[in-house]
Design a protein that fits this description.
Bound molecules: S-adenosylmethionine
CATH class: Alpha Beta
Radius of gyration: 18 Å
CATH superfamily: Vaccinia Virus protein VP39
Helix content: 25-40%
Distance between the termini: 54 Å
Number of strands: 7
CATH architecture: 3-Layer(aba) Sandwich
CATH topology: Rossmann fold
Strand content: 15-25%
Length: 209
């Protein structure tokens, strides 16, 4: 009996180490299905979105500005899957600043791609500056990946940061893009209490009041 327990424990440990090193080598750690959705995200960025979504509390509120075809929404939903968080997806769904598909209606593709999480996805179709009033609950995780102009990203931060819950997580894609970097320096860093990831082009931090 004791010997059997020893083998069972060794098997569990071997699987844990195997998984850990596989993720380290491949950069994965999120459901592979997410890779089938067209996106401008690196593997490490996908991994980080998925991992940090896990910090969202039960019945929490995730807000994403810029959903495109649903890749990041899928990762945020999958990462918080054990919980019951709502994921508000804000987009005109007209590929506003996506050079490769400018002006294309991406809504049908988005809906198809996030279908496994249908019950927790709340679509807010429209301009981020106009639908902000639809977010009634304090935001536990804010992911900003919409308008990357200085005016656009500054306006998003000005409108959505006051809606954060205590100790909320903020992630900003294209954080190395100079206009986005400037907006982060001006509005996000003064509120940062903890840096949650160090990636070249994805900012992730926890905010204080
Ligand atoms: C870079 S894509 C988002 C990619 C997505 N986060 C992903 O990883 O798959 C930017 C999206 O933001 C949307 N967008 C840009 N400016 C916006 C705004 N002011 N309000 C709402 N949506 C906006 C565009 O329509 C586009 O779908």
């Amino acid at each position: 009996m004791i010997e059997e327990q020893g083998w069972a424990r060794r098997w569990v440990m071997a699987r844990m180490f195997g998984r850990h090193y596989l993720e380290k080598l491949t950069g994965h750690g999120y459901p592979r299905a997410a890779d089938r959705i067209p996106a401008l995200l690196t593997t490490h960025e996908k991994q980080t979105l998925y991992r940090l979504a896990g910090l969202t509390p039960e019945r929490g509120c995730i807000v994403e500005i810029g959903s495109f075809k649903g890749a990041s929404a899928y990762l945020l939903a999958a990462g918080s899957a054990g919980q019951s968080a709502a994921i508000h997806c804000i987009d005109t769904f007209m590929a506003e600043n996506v050079v490769s598909s400018l002006g294309a209606d991406t809504f049908a593709e988005f809906s198809h791609n996030v279908a496994p999480f249908y019950e927790r996805i709340v679509v807010q179709r429209g301009w981020s500056t106009e639908v902000v009033g639809e977010i009634k609950q304090p935001i536990d995780l804010l992911f900003v990946d919409g308008d990357h102009s200085y005016e656009g990203v500054s306006a998003d931060l000005r409108l959505y940061l006051p809606k954060l819950a205590a100790d909320a997580v903020v992630m900003m894609h294209d954080s190395a893009h100079p206009p986005v970097a400037q907006a982060i320096r001006e509005q996000v860093l003064p509120r940062e209490t903890e840096r949650l990831a160090k990636l070249p082009n994805l900012y992730a931090g926890r905010m204080g009041r």
